[in-house]
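Here we describe the complex-level prediction in full. Unlike the single-chain runs in Section 2.1, the two entities below were treated as one system.
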Amino acid sequence: TQLLEQSPQFLSIQEGENLTVYCNSSSVFSSLQWYRQEPGEGPVLLVTVVTGGEVKKLKRLTFQFGDARKDSSLHITAAQPGDTGLYLCAGAQNAGNMLTFGGGTRLMVKP
Amino acid sequence: KAGVTQTPRYLIKTRGQQVTLSCSPISGHRSVSWYQQTPGQGLQFLFEYFSETQRNKGNFPGRFSGRQFSNSRSEMNVSTLELGDSALYLCASSLGPNTGELFFGEGSRLTVL
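The structure predicted for the assembly as a whole is:
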């Protein structure tokens, strides 16, 4: 049973389009992180959100943590081929580095 | 600053054998976590070590074990390999046990035949 449900699982879009990836749970998380993983590599941390309602921006990427700290979203504006990859959300429920990962969203941006 | 180094990158074993994977964390990082990544189950937590002590353990059988050395390097071992153990094993390091921000290595891809 996945504690964190990510949607969509797959997304194929054209360069320039916008997209949103969702990460939902019935559990409360003390913090939530987003990672991006490219083939043959380990996940790379993009952002950490810790406060309910928090919004963080990283260039064309906007991350939001739900008010109840049970869900999060990642919005990409004007996607580029370099954004292609597997996007993973991961939540921490207590102190420590034991993270629960969502199933991932595989994004392909076509030029 | 060197990243997380995992060895070996690729290995092939047969059922019943055992395997040891190694992880060198980023210099100065004292916490090491291990995750298993498979197409069906995604990323699943195996265990976490800090100061040579296991702090947390995931829901894996006892065939999976690990340890951490005084220089923060870590190893994980899987005994009596099964076909289902084929996966990418990822090591992640962090400054301490409660940062929640992990820096992953490139992984060790294990294939069990």
